[in-house]
Amino acid sequence: MSNSDRDAARHYHEVTKHSYTSVRSDPHALDWENRPLVYKIYPAAGSIAMPRELDLSPMPATVAIARVIGDSVENTAADEPLGLETLTRILFCAAGLTRSKSVAGEAYHFRAAASAGALYPIEIYLAATDVAELTQGLYHFSPADLKLRGLRRGEWRDYIADAAAGRPALVEARAILVLSAIFWRRSVRAAAKRS
Q1: Residue 34 within a domain
Q2: How many domains in the chain?
Q3: For residue range 82-134, what is the model confidence (pLDDT) as tens digits?
Q4: Which helix (H) or strand (E) holds 181?
Q5: Domain range for 145
């Protein structure tokens, strides 16, 4: 199976999704006593604060993705340098904290991309090569405090393009976002369902 096996992904989605009947006939609760940390923490990693004043576009994401001029895709930013402010907008819109709410004395954080049960299993890493204000290297995006945590210095495009993603064109990218999952954050739901 490869990363581009859409039939396998579709099959997984179909056999694991909830239906109107499934959520009403088999109710369950989260096992809050056995839940993992909400944020991945790298205590020894240095951090870089990201800009907090963001100029976010009101354009819906689906419009931006589908935007076409004539027969070619609009790409006005291709020749512009990639800076920390642009990167912050991308990361914030992908997983940034949008608000928090206190329930029974406990804080719940909500992010830009929704997650069932507010469990947020996806972590975002950045392989920066040609980003103004950043040293080449691997970083972890920390939505809790809107910072990048430096993990490894150096150039990582070749490794990611070849070994990890199988996409040779990535060697030209100024920055690569790598998404990983902490499955236990989602599994706490399944564990509660079985008990």
Answers
A1: no
A2: 1
A3: 899 989 999 998 899 888 888 888 888 888 887 877 778 899 999 999 999 99
A4: strand 175-181
A5: 39-194
145 found inside a domain: yes
Place of tokens 């997983």: 95
CATH number at residue 59: 3.40.109.10
Task: Establish if 106 belongs to a structural domain.
Answer: yes
Q: Is 128 left (phi over 0), alpha (psi -120 to 50) or beta?
A: beta
Contacts of 89 (CB under 8 A, 6+ apart): 54, 55, 56
Helix segments in the chain, DSSP class H: 6-16, 20-25, 61-66, 84-95, 157-159, 183-194
User: What are the CA-CA distances from residue 132 to residues 4, 120, 176 (Å)?
Assistant: 32, 29, 14
pTM of the model: 0.72
- Contact at 8 Å (CB) between 158 and 147? no
Going by the DSSP 8-state scheme, the letter that residue 26 receives in this structure is: S
